[in-house]
Write a structure and sequence with these properties.
Helices cover about 75% and strands about 0% of the residues. It is an all-alpha fold and about 170 residues long.
């Protein structure tokens, strides 16, 4: 019975953290998109793109939390994530969000400027903002993969552990 209570506590902790993380990144993307659209007069392009970026950042962050939690659930850990894991996940999520949020406004601003100069309506605005979103997604997925617990970037390379120099 005690084990069931412990498992329920861990599942609740994991569910709440994942839900809040996904909602937070999505709402942040939506808010930034609305603010940018108001400034640039590009309704609803920035809102939609940054909303998608927020959703993607939330999903990638949740996948990272799940990967860390799977490692810890095999042990008798008191919590799903340690404090250092939480900081690492937050740092990675912020890097992913920046990769998704920074390029899109830059593409929007440059696209609006080019469209105004060339009289091409929204052609460059759409092309540049979508291209920047795609580039940001590519970078975000690469970061998420490299930071996953089973990736080769996080595993110790053969011969780099203590005692490897002693064997030579």
């Amino acid at each position: 019975m005690k084990r069931l209570g412990h498992d329920l506590q861990l599942a609740t902790e994991l569910g709440l953290s994942m839900g809040l993380m996904a909602a937070g990144w999505t709402l942040l993307g939506l808010w930034l998109g609305i603010r940018l659209d108001d400034r640039l007069g590009t309704q609803p392009i920035a809102t939609l793109l940054l909303l998608l970026a927020g959703v993607a950042a939330g999903q990638l962050s949740m996948l990272r939390v799940v990967a860390r939690a799977r490692q810890r659930l095999g042990t008798d850990a008191k919590h799903v994530m340690s404090a250092s894991d939480a900081v690492r996940v937050l740092r990675t999520a912020i890097a992913i969000l920046l990769l998704l949020v920074v390029p899109v406004p830059l593409g929007l601003v440059l696209g609006v400027w080019l469209d105004a100069r060339l009289g091409t309506r929204l052609v460059f605005t759409l092309l540049l903002s979508m291209g920047c979103l795609g580039a940001g997604l590519y970078g975000a997925v690469r970061i998420a993969r490299s930071q996953s617990p089973g990736s080769s970037a996080n595993q110790e390379q053969p011969g780099t552990h203590a005692g490897a120099d002693d064997a030579r």
